[in-house]
Batch of 2 targets.
Target 1
Amino acid sequence: MGPPGAGKGTHADRLAEQAAVPAISTGDIFRAQVAAGTDLGRRAQQYLDSGAYVPDDVTIAMVRERLAEDDARSGFLLDGYPRTLEQAAVLDELLTAQERRLDAVVVLRVDQEVLVRRLLRRAEIEHRSDDTEDVIRRRLKVYADHTVPLIELYGDRGLVHEVDGDGEVAEVRERVLQVAYRLTLAERPIPGA
Ligand code: ADP
């Protein structure tokens, strides 16, 4: 978890690779659906463009389907889900039904002004429709209002691991991987190998 621009996608991919599980990014799935012009993409586009969350029923149905795929059977890393209490409740249900549980919630912490700067820089490179200053501020507010409460929820369960997300990508990556090593969710690379 982490606010827009915190580096969720960047670190999720590496962490998932190290833990040998798929990284499932709801934002990436939505963008791919928009690009492919599917029904789901058409339904999601207006929300993505304005920086609002896609309605829970749409997001939840999509995640249910994705988690039922074969590659998620031995584990998965979620990037950008859950973002609302309702989404978290459904995730609990899904996991309980399969007698599985969350191992950890990694929260990337980054200062708001650093985030805005990063996202504006990304806008120049990637041209994402939601990386304009107005929409960025909206996304940060939506995150604070709807998603920050989940940190407390998972914190009460002892699952939260906060990582300082400020610094070079390689530095932050190392901090994220240290959490995974500590919890033995990922194997430590053999030195020199
Ligand atoms: P960021 O975290 O930088 O906003 P993402 O790629 O994770 O980037 O998400 C982009 C957009 O996709 C969000 O602003 C939202 O519209 C939609 N989205 C992604 N995940 C969810 C979710 N779990 N619930 C609702 N909307 C979502």
Target 2
Amino acid sequence: MLEKVKGFNGDRVIEEFEALTKEAERVQRETLQRILEENGAAEYLQNLGLGGKTDPDSFKACVPLVTHKDLEPYIQKIADGDALPILTGRPIKSISLSSGTTQGKPKLVPFNEELEQSTMEIYRTSFAFRNRAHPIGNGKALQFIYSSKQFRTKGGLLATTATTNVYLSQAYKNTMKDIQSQCCSPEEVIFSLDYNQSLYCHLLCGLICSEEVQFVFSTFAHSIVHAFRTFELVWEDLCCDIREGVLSSRITIPSIRSAVSKLLRPNPQLADTIYSKCVSLSSWYGVIPELWPNAKYVYGIMTGSMEPYLSKLRHYAANLPLMSADYGSSEGWIGANIDPEEPPESATFTILPNIGYFEFIPLKERGQEQKVENCASIIGHREPEPIGLTEVNVGEEYEVIITTFAGLYRYRLGDVVKIAGFHNSTPKLQFVHRRNLILTVNIDKNTEKDLQLAVEEASKLLAVEKVEVLDFTSHVDMSTDPGHYVIFWELSSNAREEVLSNCCDCLDRAFIDAGYVGSRKVRAIGPLELRIVNSGTFHKILEHYVSLGAALSQFKTPRCVGLSNCSVLQILNSSVLKSIFSNAYC
Ligand code: AMP
């Protein structure tokens, strides 16, 4: 029997989900029809000659596959205040800024009520399944969530990150209440523009209601790790605030001071308990269950570029289950994690066939596919045709194409997914990596995932020394002849020269792509270079992105920094403590 939460009926949500996923093909047809009917008046669709047809074949025949770049002029027109139906039938009232960390610069994408609704549907669906596995009681959630700058476009539309657009909505507030996920911190903390002050207050509010906290959350796992790394530095100040009932002078924003001060009373007993728990921990192992004894799990996106933070997260969470959250983007949601018991490494996302129309470009063998992509214009090679949601094959990889209620039609999201199986007739996806190649000098092709695996392998050599890689990124240095890969590492403490040299060799050998190995052997690519950067470098990168309007909630460390991203490259290069070249392939 499912736990019934007031205002939320998990059985019903699951029943509806089962019905939708049993008839995925029909639901997809109907969803496409609705999208095209609702938006038929949009200039973009009008120009494509659909002539009112809403079936998948006509749609595919008339509407081209696009990237964000193709839609930019339309989105810009909307942002500039053109009130005509441009991409959607009804006017777009707000714009979302994607985090920009994956692409280098933020992209503008339309946000509307339908996107808000699908966000709530995803939240409710995954909660229904999560709550069946680990029912939570009445209480609160320790959420590390942050809004970002909000500004008005030339045409007066609200522009901010997608998460902020969601947090601002009434639907979000209602849903959080229904699924018992209300944040411990007052709104002023979430909406402050100083994320350092917000983070301190999230921790403080979480400690004040430590008995009530049912789970710990952030959108992307990076924010949880970041929060607890900060906790290690500020815990004594937090205890002091709780003991005295006076908020630290580091909180200077009047609205946060006043909202948080209202929650704070002198509580020496709680301060003593927290203090003694903290001093008894060894290297902060298990700090989350120790301080939040009623927490049932830790929740957030832990897949893709978040995987490198898993080991630290496990360290802080000890035996508390880690549950990976859903799959989506500023452009639209894709799937919910309905198997919360799966470890994050094998988390899958079941597509909700009613929230958008989904297509998939089959990818052949990984290296081959990317080579083809690069040469397509030269030899006139055509990519395989996208296939429908129910036509995908288990075990194969695809690029995701979405058509949304918010005006994106056959939009290449840029993500590669693998089909892990089916739930009824709708596929379950595993996130593989962003499609763009990140490291290439010659005929070599390495993706974000390849880099992640190489770093994982090499960092095992550091673990023996009790040193961790706190964060990493890469760069292709073509200023040398031949060009070479540069990997930047920020470490938790110093490591011996000899160990770093072994790590560097290991990184070089861990790129097993045939193009790389072959080029290294014939010296068409130079020895890999490992640059160790000083402590706080990746924090500076985060601050740089936040200053551009990104929200900490959506932050993803860029895993490759190109020459065009000169500010980040400058931060990295000005922080190098030492540089080591690989001796592999000598
Ligand atoms: P944003 O630019 O903040 O909208 O980020 C969207 C991107 O984040 C997606 O296109 C994915 O590359 C990544 N992402 C979102 N959800 C997940 C997930 N559950 N697992 C892995 N990557 C994800």
